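Late entry, written up from scratch paper. The run itself happened at the end of the previous shift, but nothing got recorded in the book at the time, so transcribing now.
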Amino acid sequence: DGFIGRTLRLRLGELGHDEVANLTRATSPEAWGAALAAADVVFHLAGVNRPKDPAEFSTGNADLTAQLCGELAVAGRRAALVLTSSTQVDLNNAYGRSKCEAEAHVRHYAKTTGARACVLRLPNVFGKWARPHYNSAVSTFCHNIARGLPITIHDAAAPLRLVHVDTVVEAMLALLPPSLVTGSVDVAPVYETTVGEVAAMLHEFADSRRTLAIPRVGAGFARALYSTYVSYLPPDAFAYELVGHEDSRGAFSEMLRTSDSGQFSYFSAHPGVTRGGHYHHTKTEKFLVVHGRARFGFRHILTGERHVIDVEGTIPRVVEAVPGWAHNITNTGDNEMVVLLWANEAFDPQRPDAVASTT
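Output as recorded:
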């Protein structure tokens, strides 16, 4: 029922593994024994990392793993075993020592029974569904910032080694027999960052709703952290308002600005209305009419060559505005025209790169 366990159970179900026994703290000893006696593979995710009494490290990590391995050995099925351990086994603290002992029990189980057994040593794991205000600064920061609450940072330069929960679970799925090998397996990628950097990125994500400027979130750590942050939004914050501009021609709103890939917006026009009437030196634009009927007019600034394109909202077709060609768009239909617009650069009022010209 823990953070990683819930995600693993979901992915196993998605992949068609419908014979999964879920053992939790509430499982009775009888059910526990019956499940282990019938198991082909065991993912051991249970453990203690925030005890009220330090002695719980031994009972919840080392002793529990010893009991698990003992019952699997008695069952005689040589069930494959995967243990989630911690990179803290290299540290001389109570938690690390208890995890080190747990690993030793797993290796002993594999050696004495011939079963395949694997250890995953994990750094801090983050992602959706982690419990805030527990043992993850990332989940706590996400929860608070998504609700406009303050966060506490004791040392902004403190290093963080993070791995995303989906990466962990996919590594586990890759160990399902017959792929499982005895030994230790590294999970990658592991992201190297700091507490302060994580907090700054999360604040930037939150501010993007106001500024409409989204950082690069399509790959790597930024992608994983942005996904995590959004998962902590409360349902009443799933939507947010945009600034609308409306005049006699129709409406216009910016939706999103990127750091290096332009901006997205939309506009509408009433029947018979023409919008545009300018050219760009370097800016390019893509137009997609999603509702209504439109005519695009083009005129080459130097040669005077003209070109016309008619489009219907029922037929997806992108029209490109080319530098050096004056262009406009006219609503030639009887209803409101709605157009999506992408420009390859964010609008800069100091350098708009839009020169008025007839088409």
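The chain has a mean pLDDT of 94.
(Scratch paper discarded after transcription.)
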